[in-house]
Amino acid sequence: MRAESDTAPEQALANDQAPDQTPEQTADQAPVDEQVFVDARAERSPDWPDRATRWAQITLAEDDPEHFDLDFWLDLMRDSRSNATCISAGGYIAYYPTTIKYHYRSKYLGDTDPFGALVDGARGLGMSVMARVDPHAVHADAADAHPDWLARDIDGNPLEHWAHPDIWLTCAYTTYHSEFITEVAREIVREYDVDAVFANRWEGYYGISYSEAARRSFRDETGLELPAKEYGENWHEYVGWRRRHLSRLVTIWDEAVRDLRPHARFIPNLGALGARDLDREQVERHYPIFFIDKQGRSGTEAPWSAGRNGKRNRGVFPDRPVRLITSVGPEHHQYRWKDSVAPAEETKTWIVDGFAHGALPWFTKFNASVPDRRWVPPVVEAFTLHAQVEPVLEDLRITAEVALVDPTRAGQLRAGEKVSQHDDGFYQALVEARVPFEFVSDQALTADRLNQYKVLVLANAEQLGDDQCAALRAYVEQGGSLVAAYQSSLFDERGEVRADFGLSDVLGIHLVEPSRAVKNNYIALTDEHRLNEGFGDTTRIIGGTEILGIEADPDAVVPFRFIPDFPDLPMEEVYPRKGPDRPGVVCREHAGGGRTVYFPFNLGAIFWEALQSDHGRLIANAVAWALGKDPDVTVEGAGLVDVAVHQGEGQVAVALVNLTNPMAMRGPIRETLPLPPQTVTVALPTDPAGVEVRPKVRLVVAGVDVEPIVDNQRVVVTIPTAGLLEIVHVDWRQ
């Protein structure tokens, strides 16, 4: 089937005929049984992304066609109850008999079609199927024939791949992406029964490419030259231009695929966090589902990182389904052990924490040969666990009273080494405090979004434009509460420093002295307040390592003040010379009912670095006071538990992911320690007719019903123990 919109790409490829084609038969004119194709297409439904909830991915290596075991993979799909699969098809290497010139076939392909065999097998299991392509590099023959396809450095030199010789990085602003990859996608969709094409590393070279096509496009659109470096001159314009170009590229690909199969999609590998690099309107039109390519923990990443991926996705596009890609091997970016196996408990925890927070499971195996099968049981176990809880969770929506504002990362004009540590510290403190919370992107600060939450947390949202500050100001005026730290709102959206905080009037503070590094810093407990409860028999706690000098408005309460600097050596000199003076924490209550808390130091970053319990308590106290009421859901007990609240009409499901393990904050999880008893409480609605609500409660993973206690309009449930996951389902539907 042809469409006028494809004329340009097809014509461009007509001059590059494949060796086995006649002059009359070019790539876009491969034989097609039109009637058979139309019949197959009619059987497929456009809502397949919602039903594809457990994904099995096979990322083929070039030699796999010679020896891969089809039965093993189909048995694994069946045993894991996978209902969707992503299979390597083409791009850098084709695993099917392509007819497009310069679409490199695996040299082991022979007369086989491993991609086609896997597609047929998966369809036989009733699965959705997505074809994987990778456009980020080409082989030498394509590079020689089409030097215009290649990414180039600032001096115009083509960029050879950093990991493999004699292959070359491509540039997303050339016809390689807009025309060649378009035809690869169309060939796959014409010839195979697939629901989508999935593109890995689809942006080509991730840095600034100085190809002639890129230079010309940027100059034509902006009148400027490409930036000489990231965050340099013209960077702001570059970010906008890149967003527009990549958005157009996604549109070209998706429309080309849908022209052949209306239900099918072209979906570049992208979570919603990365989708902020694209025009929102185009994303909403062309992304029916997001895939987060954060495949596991690396180094000392926290065990809750998987769940954070789901939250971040909802922070930008709350209603768009998302799947979290999990590697069966360890994720160590420096050493790249891609053909290895992670500890079983690590793999299970990553998958389970992800789906508890709405990022449903996807596993990927690099290389179809399986010399080490230790990854199979944990994948099957985690996927089976999801299938068990899916009937309860599938129609519920994750909710929270607290949200962490997620600052823009892509295109940020202020690059900092510790930029994420502020968020990490607040995140860790909220997990430790068992506070259910969500993310909301700083690019989505609309009244509709903000009013879903009672407390917003700005760990260090440095760059906020005037419109964003106005949205937060209106939120507080309507009764919302803010907890903000360090340099939040001190810079505008372009990274220019303000004379005072953009939210100074809301927070009740004014800048006196810019940030400075300190050692041996302390804050003293001064005015009696909820924020300085629970610190025991002390008059001071550790402060920050980077602090701001501020003044507080007269109507503010200052429960902590900085102790002026004093030496940390010699030891005989380590004592304060003066009493507490400048504000160390500032609290306000607003006429509309909202509350604000401000910390003029790097509270999140220093908690993440030093993990001092007083800092975690300070964050938890601030959020509790800002909320101003009993939380709708509480979870109490020992251990490290990541909590998610799923809610629907007349029911709540509280997911407890047990992250308690000997290596919790250090490295891969080798063992999950069973939880001791946990007490879960859930607020019940007040029936306007005065009828007492009598809920049913079930522990979904344990598979048992429990008799709850109802006390003061709250359901109280005690879980005697739990392994990796338990879900408390409270149902008061009549």
UniProtKB/TrEMBL annotation:
Coiled-coil ranges (or none): none
Name the record gives this protein: Trehalose utilization protein
Pfam families the UniProt entry points to: GHL6, ThuA
Source species, domain of life: Bacteria
Regions of compositional bias (Polar residues) in chain numbering: 18-28
InterPro entries: Class_I_gatase-like (IPR029062), Divisome_Glycosyl_Hydrolase (IPR052177), GH (IPR017853), GHL6 (IPR028212), ThuA-like (IPR029010)
Region (Disordered): 1-34
Gene3D superfamilies, A to Z: 3.40.50.880, Glycosidases (3.20.20.80)
Residue span(s) of domain ThuA-like: 426-626
